[in-house]
Automatic annotation (TrEMBL):
The keyword Cell inner membrane applies. This is Lipopolysaccharide-assembly, LptC-related family protein. Gene3D superfamilies: Lipopolysaccharide (LPS) transport protein A like domain. Keywords: Cell inner membrane, Cell membrane, Membrane, Transmembrane, Transmembrane helix. One of its GO terms (cellular component) is plasma membrane. InterPro entries: LipoPS_assembly_LptC-rel (IPR010664), LPS_export_LptC (IPR052363), LptC (IPR026265). The keyword Plastid does not apply. The lineage of its organism: Bacteria, Pseudomonadati, Pseudomonadota, Gammaproteobacteria, Lysobacterales. It holds the Pfam family LptC. One of its GO terms (molecular function) is lipopolysaccharide transmembrane transporter activity.
Length: 188
């Protein structure tokens, strides 16, 4: 075989390998040519205090992992714990809100919690208030929360279940449309 024939075989093999490498890389991207956006930063085992526009604590966030979308400037959080303090002179204790997943808007004015959401606080008398649902949207700047899915609210002597929720986290006033209420006698 001449050197030209050998060179032709080597070039054909290189072209075939290049084509195979490009083809296999395409499969990793889902076949549509797009690559998944990488977060511009990741936090592990952290605590962050988020301030509102007046420079006062809006909420504190603790979680094992947070990623930030570089394009949208939003945060995705794994198993978050949000601590929402009462306003000055507020009613009762702070809210502790847990879920499997969380999302925070770029401005920090909306928090979407998904999966086994539990919100716990106390009223002015120090009695427990517990809310459980699968989805809860919290608006820290206005101290409001909403949910469009089934919700369960437990207060001493009362269990309310229904679909949907409108809550003022400051006054602890909760409205649940289509509610079913069960009263339980106090233990003596």
């Amino acid at each position: 075989m001449s050197w030209r024939g050998m060179l032709t075989l080597i070039l054909m093999a290189a072209a075939a390998l290049s084509g195979w490498a490009l083809w296999s890389q395409r499969d990793r991207n889902g076949g549509d040519g797009r690559t998944e956006a990488r977060p511009d930063y990741v936090l592990n085992q952290f605590e962050a205090v988020v301030l509102n526009k007046e420079g006062k604590e809006s909420f504190t966030l603790r979680a094992p992992k947070l990623t930030r979308d570089p394009d949208e400037k939003t945060l995705d959080v794994t198993t978050p714990l949000f601590l929402i303090p009462p306003k000055a002179g507020g009613n009762g204790g702070p809210w502790e809100v847990r879920s499997q997943r969380g999302w925070v808007s770029a401005e920090g004015d909306e928090v979407r919690l998904r999966g086994q959401v539990k919100a716990d606080s106390t009223n002015t008398a120090g009695k427990a208030i517990n809310i459980s649902t699968e989805e809860l949207n919290v608006f820290p700047d206005t101290n409001k929360a909403t949910s469009a899915v089934p919700v369960r609210l437990i207060q001493p002597g009362t269990i309310m279940t229904g679909s949907g929720l409108q809550a003022d986290l400051e006054t602890k006033n909760v409205t649940i449309p289509n509610v079913k209420v069960r009263y339980e006698a106090k233990a003596r």
